[in-house]
Amino acid sequence: MEKINSLAVVGAQWGDEGKGKVIDYLASRADVVARFQGGNNAGHTVVYGANIFKLHHVPSGIINAGTLCLLGNGMVVDPLVLVEELAELEKRGIDTSNLRISGKAHLNLIYHKDLDEENEKLLGEKKIGTTGRGIGPAYADKIMRRGIRAIEMIDLERFRERLAGILPLQNRILKEIYGHAGYDLGQLVELYRPAIEKLGPMVTDGSQVLFESLNAGKKVLFEGAQGALLDIDHGTYPYVTSSSTVAAAAATGNGVGPQHVRQSLGVIKSYTTRVGEGPFPTEDHFEAGEQLRERGNEFGTTTGRPRRCGWFDSVIARYAAMINGLTGLAVTKLDVLSGMDTVNIAVAYRCGEVEINNFPQSIEELKVCTPVYETFPGWDEDISRVRSLKDLPAAARHFLNAMEESVGVKIELVSVGPDRSQTIIGQDSILESWIGHNQ
Ligand code: IMP
After folding, report:
1. Is 230 touching ligand 1 by the criterion CB < 6 Å?
2. What's the maximum distance between 2 C-alpha atoms anywhere in the chain?
């Protein structure tokens, strides 16, 4: 079996697919875990024994002593939130000394959060439904070439100087457009001083770290956040996040060559959820949607918002497989479907008179699409203790086969509960080499 040294794990729906659990499982065998996009809009829940960790910036790999965790250049980092996250981990006995921050990552600062909130208010009914964390404005400043990069944190004076050059413009925008009071330079520097003192020593050249690790044959896991349908280019624009969430971004968002992202595992929930606004063809406003939300505990990790829920949509999963070049699937939360009388898969969309199999480019078209379902028998058994595909009820196996066929990508892993141990590795899975490699 081919040995794999690097692997990207990405969301193949609208985020919240259960990547935290899958990444935590795979990260336990990784030497390096590197994030490549997003910021503290992400919320990964990792359950390890009796411990539940809610992570926002920090890769799930932090739980494993000895795994190097990197925040890549493609990320936007909120220093205040990151230090809180580290303090929480440290309080619970986790060693965070293995965290590194690419000097090229951008800082998400307090005025970005204000701008995010004010933009949403201005949009009114047309709001995006952002997490309100400042993500969009921080990326906008990066592209406008007026961002502040993590490298400026290595020295408070450098940070002060850079901020002094930028703050007058930010204040003008805040005051003149939004009627906000703006910020005083000295106060802002003092606000960030403790965070900068803590984080400055963690700033490094992320590309160099990865280059050396990959050349030394170390195992590198690229950790995606959000999901394919929230990608700034390929998602349901404008109801998307502000970064590239697809596997190819693992290369640009870390400064490594694309040959290191040959394997990409797409995480898909056995049903579909979405938070925030925007079209969602299989959204179910009735009993099934309510059941999925309650059984699956579908409430946002970052914002606590109830997630919109519906059946598994193979049209979006096929699309996600195409734009990511997925080489495998990880199906999560299969246990949540236990006890449903029947389970559905959307195999196509009906748009007016026509039936389409491919995801439409325009959200106007998507808004009028309704799903064409195939219905399968459900199963009643509690599957949370099953550890092998052959021990699953026949109906659950049948459903998994239908998912695999409808997406056209092999299922490599199935998760039947939040704990690391509640994981089934598929037959002849490429992941066996990843998991077995260091044993
Ligand atoms: P932003 O990333 O905060 O700008 O939010 C833009 C859109 O992405 C909104 O619909 C959010 O709900 C969604 N979003 C951002 N991060 C996540 C996530 O980690 N999971 C699910 N949705 C997310």
Report:
1. yes
2. 65
